[in-house]
Amino acid sequence: MTETPKTAPGAALSGLRVLDMTRILAGPWATQILADMGAEVIKIERPGVGDDTRSWGPPNVTDQQGRDRGAAYFHSANRSKKSVTVDMVRPEGQRVLKALAGRCDVVIENFKVGGLAKYGLDYASIEAIKPDIVYCSITGFGQTGPYANRAGYDFLIQAMGGLMSVTGQADGTPGAEPIKVGVALTDVLTGLYAVIGILSALRHRDATGEGQHIDMSLLDVQVATLANQAMNFLATGTSPGRLGNAHPSIVPYQAFAASDGHVILAVGNDGQFARFCEAAGAPGLATDERFATNPGRVRHRDVLIPILQGLMSGRSMDDWITTLNAANVPVGPINSIERVFADPHVRFRGLQTYPTTPDGDALVGVGSPLKLSRTPAVAPLAAPDLGADTGAVLSRLLDPSTFDLEALMADGTIGDTRAKPKAGGTP
């Protein structure tokens, strides 16, 4: 058996190998970040089925030849990975995965608590094979506690973790009800925290030789990221309510209707408020004792906001954006996602990318926001077709005297989907 260099030499995480037994979003988001920074991420999928999100379409992504490359949802969280299909229900599949884990630095999974123990793929089993393994488990409620055995999904956790209680129009206004955030934010935040935990554990491993188990809970993350809203409650004993687009502690910091659309006015300090008032032709507001300081503006928001709305409605969005930016007052439009990707600054920052397939076809994708001066994110590769890397990865990492890959492929324990997708079909 020969070892070939891992992906992305010179990248920040070059030399790091990750066994990714996750699906949906939180786990794949974490491993995608690791892949962006140069780690070799081996995504384990079920033969013939794969990650659930492969079928979460339309919309689907198409390549330059007009061929269907699968659900856009799957592509959002799986770029630059390698897909290996293994049936973990079969004893031989479990043996394959244990051998792969022994060749990896990190194992990450998001099965139910205890779900992998029956396959010998839980932390205790993998640690016995590789004591310095960093093993990250992502669940809805964590490995311990009264809810540990419950299934947890982002929408449910946004509700249980308090986020929806502070999101939506205020009671007594039209459309007032708790609202979820428009993206699966709890999943994304959990993926980010998982990466922080993994990198911290790797730092400890490199210093001591010890691996460890990381217990990531969506509910823990959601409660922790309530941020100022959590502290507002702990400081007062009163639960914050919904304020629509307004801020509980800063005024004015919300959406206002201009003559032709809505803009966000984000005044963060008294100096900005004074400059806004001058630019808006109402300098006296900044010297009014009710409004001169932010605490005063918060206390008198019911008086101030209608006054400001009257001013804002008299000019166009572009007029306000030009005028207030010139006055160094934070302001901006509420963009559709189409407008986001047409924005000149977003384009300049490279947030739309064109990841390539192994065949050299360019797809479309979103870029990594990580911009390191010496070890930037690697050039993105397209999310892999199901099982496309099975043969290449296993022949490189498994001992041929111990594993007969042809036999395993013949009996369906592993799979290698190398056929190119057909026009209008699925990968």
Number of helices: 17
**CATH homologous superfamily placement of the largest domain:** Crotonobetainyl-coa:carnitine coa-transferase, domain 1
Unreliable segments of 5+ consecutive residues: 1-6, 419-427
Quick one: overall form?
elongated
Task: Identify the CATH class of the largest domain.
Answer: Alpha Beta
User: Strand-residue fraction?
Assistant: 5-15%
Could you tell me the mean pLDDT? Answer: 94
**Backbone structural class:** alpha/beta
Q: What is the CA-CA span between the terminal residues?
A: 30 Å
- CA radius of gyration is 25 Å
Whole-number tally of structural domains: 2
Map the helices and strands.
Blueprint: E1 17-21, H1 26-36, E2 40-45, E3 60-62, E4 68-71, H2 72-76, E5 82-86, H3 91-101, E6 106-109, H4 123-129, E7 134-139, H5 154-160, H6 185-208, E8 212-217, H7 218-224, H8 228-236, E9 253-258, E10 261-266, H9 270-279, H10 284-287, H11 294-299, H12 301-312, H13 317-326, E11 331-333, H14 337-342, H15 344-348, E12 352-353, E13 365-366, H16 390-397, H17 405-410, E14 414-415
Helix pairs in contact: 1-6, 6-7
Overall description:
This protein is of the alpha/beta class and 427 residues long. It folds into two domains: 273 residues, Rossmann fold (3-Layer(aba) Sandwich); 84 residues, 2-Layer Sandwich (formyl-coa transferase, domain 3), CATH 3.30.1540.10. 35% of the residues lie in helices and 14% in strands. It contains 17 helices and 14 strands. It has a seven-stranded mixed sheet, with helices on both faces. The protein has a three-stranded antiparallel sheet with strand order 9-10-11, covered by helices on one side. Strands 3-4 form a two-stranded antiparallel sheet. Strand 6, helix 4 and strand 7 form a beta-alpha-beta unit. The longest helix has 24 residues. The N terminus and C terminus are likely disordered. It comes from Aliiruegeria lutimaris. Keywords: Transferase.
